Each structure stands twice: as C-alpha cells, then as structure tokens.
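One chain is below:
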Amino acid sequence: MNLYPFALQSKLPHIGTTIFTVMSSLANEYKAINLSQGFPDFEVDEQLVALIHQYFRKGFNQYAPMAGILCLREAIAEKCQYVYGASINPETEITITSGATEAIFSTITAIIHPTDEVIIFEPAYDCYAPAIQLCGGIPVYIQLKAPNFAVDWETVKKYITEKTRMIIINTPHNPTGSILTADDMIQLQKLIASTNIILLSDEVYEHIIFDHATHESVLKYPKLAERSFVVFSFGKIFHATGWKIGYAIAPENLMKEFRKVHQFNVFSTNTPTQYALADYLKDRTNYLGLSNFYETKRNYFLDILKNVPFKYTPTKGSYFQCVDYSKISNKTDKAFTIQLTKETGIAAIPVSAFYHNTTDCTLVRFCFAKNQQTLEQTAERLMQLA
C-alpha cells in the first residue's frame, strides 16, 4: 500500500543525515570517547549560568526585539572596537541570531538568487552548500591543499566569473585549523575590489588561535568590511554550543536585507541569555583568555599524538586537529573512523565529509575541547595504535 499518495521532489536530493550525527550516534552505541562532534565536555562558567538564572527570575522571558537586545548589540560593538578597531553601529549593523548557522543561512538566503555562483573553499563546513542550493545558487568549489591548506589567490582569480556573487571564507578554519593571514586579506581585497562580490566571513573561532598569531578579522579591513557579512558565535567562545546563539555584522544596506530573512526565519533569539551575555562581555578576560586556555589543551593533545604513527601539522586555530592516518591503515577515512570508534573507543570525523564529492585525503578530525580526564583517557586508548 502506498502511504504517500502524492509526488515529492526533494530540494536537497543528495543530502542525508550529517556525519556529525552519524558519528555521535556510533560513539554512544560503542561507549566511545566522542572527539567527533565539535562541542566541549566541560561546564560553562558558573558566573554566566548565574546571570541567565537571574534574568529568568526577573521575568525577561518574552520575545526579544527582532534584531536582538540593544544592550547586547552595544556590548558587541564595544568589543569590536576594542579588539578589531572597527566602528560598528549597534542599531543598524548587528543582529543577534539563533546560532552562527542561522546567521550563515540568513545571509545566503538574503543575497543569493538562482544561478548566482558562490565560491567555497574545501574542505568546508557542511552548512554552506545546502543553503546555496536551496536558493538556486551554484556552489563553486576550490580545494585547499594539505598540509597547510593555504588559499592560492591566483587560482581563486581564475574561478571568478560574471556570475560570482559571493565568496565564503572561514578563519580559523573548520576542519583544518588553518588561518588566514594579513597578506591573505590584502590579496582578497585586491581581488574583489572592482567586482560586485559579497563576502561571507565565518569567524566563529575568532578567539581560539595559537602560537602568538593574530586573528585577521574582516572587520579590520574597511574595504572588505563594507561588502561583508561577518558571523560570530557565543556558543563557540563560551563553551555553550547548545544555546545556539550568535550574531552577524554587516553594513546597514546589507543588514537590512539580512533582517528581512531573519525576521521570518526565527524572528528573535533567547531573551534571558542575551541579557546575560551583555553583562558577561563587560569583563574582557572572559574572551581574551581563550587562546591560552585552548592552546594548553592543543599542546597536551599534540603530546598524545607523538606516540601514535599519525602525520599532522599542528592546528593554528579552532579546537580541531586533523591527522593523516595512512601509516596505520589503507582504509577509506570513513571506514577508518568507524573502525576507530568500534575497536579503539575514539570517535572522530572523516575529513571527506567536508568535500562535496567526498574526496578522501586519509585525514580525520579530532575535537580536543575536552576536560583533562577525557584527554587522558583518549591518550590511553590511542596508545593501542602505537
């Protein structure tokens, strides 16, 4: 019996369940340490939790303004001025979003029309291309080369056409942990100066950057900022990915279009959390200390890897480390991660999941945003591969 008496044409026929869900489910099934999905396993700062409870109890539980609570947008503007030297109008150029993914989706939906081309650098976070395709746009993929995954701007120039409407950049980069430099930003600025290309800059790991490097935000470059949407995440920097709260920054003319989509997408974001974050941002040490905090975890994780026959380049940013396992196995990266989960009790993500054609580079990604006990247990289990 046909239970579906109508025809349905999928708008995303080639999209299935994300690899993050698959590997997390497998980790649960085999009681493996979950280093696959990018979330911390340690607690949020008690001060921030207390602030949220305070605003819950004060009755700040109804809809926030569509663009976000003004005091939070003002705190963000002050942060941008202090960190990046950027003057941002909190009323017209900042919108609080239900996570960075919503900000990315709303940006693409606001700008991309059918047949518009969007340049994506692969490996790439998996939410970019589906949003483009839902709008009738065409993803144009440029592969970054291991081990450094640097952008070759001369190659990018060859991919730009009259249909190119947007370029998406991500620094620090997920999954590879590479970062864009000041020279990269200058080259990008020259490349798109005489075009109508819009830039979408995914900077959710802005404060997780290592070895005395500097985060080169688009906001530091006025000629780029004037044509950019820049996306950030409170969930990433304050260890609360489940809160799904982020924000987008763009010039007023671009933000007007963004808000047209945002208001009919989610309309507004969790109210008491916004008030709490506005207070929490007043203490700059709450975000300026993140690099040292995560660099300690990265270095400990790299010490673990020294005892395992992986090949790797130390991550420069984010809380991810990619490794080449080709000295251990000749399996595909997906098969290797499944075996690693079942037999070693460590769940990772195959990097092929970040390519539109599942390019297999014998790389897997580990998340080291874990407490010390978890990392110590990881060391014990990975020694099985030594």
User: Anything to note?
Assistant: The mean pLDDT is 95. The two ends are 55 Å apart (CA to CA).
